[in-house]
Write a structure and sequence with these properties.
- The complex is a heterodimer.
- By secondary structure, chain A is mostly beta strands.
- Chain A contains no helices and eleven strands.
- In chain A, the strands form two sheets. In chain A, strands 2, 4, 5, 6, 9, 10 and 11 form a seven-stranded mixed β-sheet that branches. In chain A, strands 1-3-8-7 form a four-stranded antiparallel β-sheet, with no helix packed on it.
- Chain A is globular, with a radius of gyration of 13 Å.
- By secondary structure, chain B is mainly beta.
- Chain B is built from no helices and eleven strands.
- In chain B, strand 7 and strand 8 form a beta hairpin.
- Classes of the chains: A mainly beta, B mainly beta.
- The interface of A and B includes residues 42 and 100 of A.
């Protein structure tokens, strides 16, 4: 079974803090993705990566950055958290470029 | 216009009923499609893949109409455990971002 692990299920941070969300997959997948999911807006792609050290902006990259130093790990960074970044964050990975497997999600609250 | 559109529902149906969801897509280059299931506060999980005209798996049938650019999901003999949000997803091989998600259709199966 594919396993995508996100480091935290729930996170509470203060406005202005730097936040790291970690994601690890164990299936040697080339592609990894970060989404956020908000009621009524569905899944929105923040960033994705198709190889180590490679990254591409998704639909809503503003306020976020990513890091992929190793194939199995893809990190999402909020340089200075703001209240409008309160959301559910989902990491996913894929090999052949279609079916994506998701982690359990991180519910982030920024106060 | 959203690239993948779904009726958000909610659909409330009695146990044992047959229910169908439709999904339309605007990108004619989309080549394959998926239905994901997402339980409340959990991650999306793959339910079915649709690569040609359709697919059937037990009580679930997905159909693809390329001429009209829509995909449907039919659930027969609904169970209480089918209650979830169903996400329609389109894949375009020429797109580096790979998958486009609909906002989801909420289903509640009532006893």
């Amino acid at each position: 079974d594919v396993k995508v692990t996100q480091s935290s299920r729930y996170l509470v941070k203060r406005t202005g803090e730097k936040v790291f969300l970690e994601c690890v997959q164990d299936m040697d997948h080339e592609n990894m993705f970060w989404y956020r999911q908000d009621p009524g807006l569905g899944l929105r792609l923040i960033y994705f990566s198709y190889d180590v050290k490679m990254k591409e902006k998704g639909d809503i990259p503003e306020g976020y950055s990513v890091s992929r130093e190793k194939k199995e790990r893809f990190s999402l960074i909020l340089e200075s958290a703001s209240t409008n970044q309160t959301s559910m964050y989902l990491c996913a990975s894929s090999s052949r470029g279609d079916i994506q497997y998701f982690g359990a999600g991180t519910r982030l609250s920024v106060l | 216009r959203k690239e993948v559109e779904q009726d958000p529902g909610p659909f409330n149906v009695p146990e044992g009923a047959t229910v169908a969801f439709n999904c339309t897509y605007s990108n004619s280059a989309s080549q394959s499609f998926f239905w994901y299931r997402q339980d409340c506060r959990k991650e999306p999980k793959l339910l079915m893949s649709v690569y040609s005209s359709g697919n059937e798996d037990g009580r679930f049938t997905a159909q693809l109409n390329r001429a009209s650019q829509y995909i449907s999901l039919l659930i027969r003999d609904s169970k209480l455990s089918d209650s979830a949000t169903y996400l329609c997803v389109a894949h375009s091989s020429g797109s580096a971002r790979q998958l486009t998600f609909g906002s989801g259709t909420q289903l509640t199966v009532l006893p």
